[in-house]
Amino acid sequence: MLSQQIIDCLNQQINLEIYSSHLYLQMSSWCAYKSLEGCATFLSQHADEEMTHMRRLLNYLQETGAFAVIDGMQAPPTDFNSLTEMFEKIYGHEKLVTSKINNLVHLANTEPDYATLQFLQWYVAEQHQEEFLFKSILDKIKLIGTEGQGIFFIDREIANMAANRTQETTAMN
Ligand code: OFO
Q: In degrees rounded to 5, what are phi and psi of residue 74?
């Protein structure tokens, strides 16, 4: 049985994952509007992944007999000055998610709640991958540059990442 504090924090995390999904879907829409189809596809996939992160948490709460609560939540930003700014915002957002997961791990460890501590290990590893992914995209943007045809090549690189992701998901199913 989970403590009320753990339930509240897991519910906050559920809502943060839904917000992440909304954020990436909105960013995908912005990219599609700017004819950046590779980035749009990649971010749309990522929005779907965030909902799977949310569902893991939802299922965990339900398995323990706790009540999962979906909040009303703030709308994501709709406009960005540049592709670089948009990916910087994503990287910053993922660092925020990591800090929330770390807080949850700390709480589970302190209580102690070993089942939740073990459940959260998947998120610890996932956040490492998420930060690495978006940091590497920002590094690529810096390397290629956004002048002239740079933006076209960046979009193509990110389209390849989306295609690889689709292949990985198909292979897993
Ligand atoms: Fe992008 O990360 Fe969820 O947890």
A: -65, 150
Q: Classify residue 120 as exposed, middle or buried by CB count within 10 Å of its CB (0-12, 13-18, 19+).
A: buried
Single pTM value for the model? 0.96
Distance 114 CA to ligand 1 centre (A): 22
Token representation of residue 164: 């690889």
pLDDT of residue 171: 84
Q: Domain count for the chain, please give it.
A: 1
Confidence of residue 167 (pLDDT cuts 50, 70, 90): confident
Residues 6+ apart with CB under 8 A from 101: 13, 120, 123, 124, 127
CATH classification of the domain holding 13? 1.20.1260.10
Token reading at 158 = 């990110």
**How many angstroms separate the alpha carbon of residue 155 from the centre of ligand 1?**
22
